[in-house]
Each structure stands twice: as structure tokens, then as C-alpha cells.
Amino acid sequence: MKPRIIAFYLPQYHPIPENDEWWGKGFTEWTNVGKAKALFRGHYQPRVPADLGYYDLRLPQVRERQAELAREAGVEGFMYWHYWFGNGKRLMDGVFDEVVKSGRPDFPFCLGWANHSWYAKDWNANGSKNDKLLIEQTYPGEHDYRSHFEAILPALKDSRYIKVGDQPVFLIFDPSKLPPAFIPLWNSWAKENGFPHGLYFVANVKSYECRDKDEVLRIGFDAVTFERLREVYTAKSKFHEILNAAFNRIVLNRPIFTKDYRKACLRLTNREVDRCDKVIPTLLPNWDHTPRSGERGLLLTDSTPARFKEHANTVLDIVKHKQNKLIFLKSWNEWGEGNYMEPDLKFGKGYICALREALDEQPQQ
């Protein structure tokens, strides 16, 4: 069986009323991307999209071209981020609803529930920050869980929906907040609707939470994926973290949360943990949160297609003897986080070609 690479996909890049209210008329993720500035010599900003331009995801021809590029890279499908805040409140649902309704693009997909509140973060001169709640994630109870399930049921029944065996894959961004009744209820309703083994629930576990995978599996999840990005910036002690921050700011004149991509990749995988069939490893092509967070953003420097290929080879080597060969690619189009595979003016289709080459060079199983 070949590796199954599923790319996280942000269904934004078009105006919505809520963003108009919070950030100004016509705001999209491109607003942050377009106004980004280089913060030090050699800092790759702003990042300008190439083949697809500053696209609007409401256009079906854009979505078709994205699917073509993903196939070219060797990506099996997209995991669309899904936003359900409770009491039927959804955001940024129009793009995915159109994908389901239209049957296009003819490209596999699944859903990841971004079950977290949204905040606006304002930084003060002294380094502190104020978090303004924009919309709260709530869990009103069984009636709402049922409404949520029925809202995505047409997608689950779509022939394009990605499965493990006969179980549709569904990722939970923050499993620590999920009510205990949620998974049993959804599995019972899934079985009533033609999925005899329920859903394939994946827990997105942040490494700094120190939650053991077995603990997460015991509460009903089928698999775990570890979000290790913040671990890259964690030093041996608080003293070392302060020292690293001071070195970045004073000596290198860079944002305090800056790390080299190649070194970071050494901490983004864990062979001992990731070789378990219940663990889904993650590929990370690049990361630069400064368009959203400025000098407080997490930043990986010197990512290139060649270095990404090295990282991809490591991850592909980890899964080659596993039965479960799922790999998450973070991400396909998170331009505001400098975390994308799509072509840009500097590298063109470099990251797409790098992943394709890494896959093609894998020994045949």
C-alpha cells in the first residue's frame, strides 16, 4: 500500500460577514499576506502566489486547479477545516458545501473540526497581550451534536469521502475540550446511517499538553496526530528559552521565536512514537506566522523544496512498514501562516515537485 497523504485545507480566501465586521469590509486571508513585510535581511516576505494568484475560493475553476496541483504532488485528498461553534452556528462553510453539492472537484476529501474559540490578539508595548473573544466554541448537548452530525452526513456519504477501511476520517482539533458523550453518540448515529464501524476519529494532540496517546485512545479516538511545532521553540529550561529569545532579538535582530527549518524538522518527527499504527505523522513544508502576528509570530527560516524533500523522506521512511500509512500534510494553503504547498513567485512549484520526487523514489512495497 502506498502512503496516503492528506493535506489540511483552509476554506477561506473570500469575504464573509463576520470578517467584515471584525476586520473591515472585504477582509480575507490575502489581506494579511499582501501587507506582510520582511522583518530582517533575508526574511522571505511578502510571499506572492504564482500560478493561482490571489484567488477567490468561491470560483470552481480555482478549486479544480488546486486539486490538479495536489494530484501532481502525490496528495490523496484535502482535509477541509470545518467550523461548528454550537447551536448550529457555522463559519466559512460555503466553499465545502459547494464542493459536496456540485460533486466537483472529483478529488477525495474529509473534515477536520476546528473546535476552538476565535480571538483577536492585541500586543501591548510591554510584551503582554489582550485576547478579545470574537466567537466562542460551545457544546450545548445532545440535540446540537445531532444537528452537527446531520449537517455533515451528506459529505460522509459522498463517494469521495476519505476512509480508513469503511470508517470516514474525522479529525478533532482540540480533543481535550470534547464532551465524553460526543464520540459514542456520533458513532451510534454513524452506524444507523450505513457505517457499521462508526467514524475514524483522529485526535490532534499538542505536544506541550503532555498527553499520552494511550490516554487519548482510551476515550474513544481511533488514532492520534501530534502537533509538535511549539515543541521546536521549547528549550531545556526557562532560562535557555530567555537566552535563545535574547540571542534572536539582540544578536541576530530577528523575531524571538525564530528557528532554522532543517533543525526544526528533527523535532517534528519522533520515530519511536510515529511508527505506531495509531499515530499519524505530519509533514510541514514551511512556517512563518509573522503576517498574522508580526514580530511575535513563530517563524522557521531557510525552508526550501530540497530541505522539505529531506523531511518528506524521513516521514515516508517511518510509515513504509506500517499498516496505517496515513500522513497529514500541514498545510496546502495556509498562506497567512507561511505554511503552504501552492506555487509562489520564489519557488514556483518547487514544494509540489519535491514531494512528488520523494514519493517516486520510495522503494516499491
Q: Mind explaining what this structure looks like?
A:
The chain is an alpha/beta fold and about 375 residues long. It has a single domain, classed as Glycosidases (TIM Barrel, Alpha-Beta Barrel), CATH 3.20.20. It has 14 helices and 16 strands. It has helices spanning about 15-25, 30-35, 60-75, 95-100, 140-155, 180-190, 215-220, 230, 240-250, 260-270, 270-275, 290-295, 305-320, 350-360, and strands at about 5-10, 75-85, 90, 110-115, 120-125, 130-135, 165, 165-170, 200-205, 225, 260, 280-285, 300, 325-330, 335, 340. The strands form four sheets. Strands 1, 2, 3, 4, 7, 8, 9, 10, 12 and 14 form a ten-stranded mixed beta sheet that branches. It has a two-stranded antiparallel ribbon with strand order 5-6. Strands 11-13 form a two-stranded parallel ribbon. Helix 5 crosses helix 6. It is globular. The mean pLDDT is about 95.
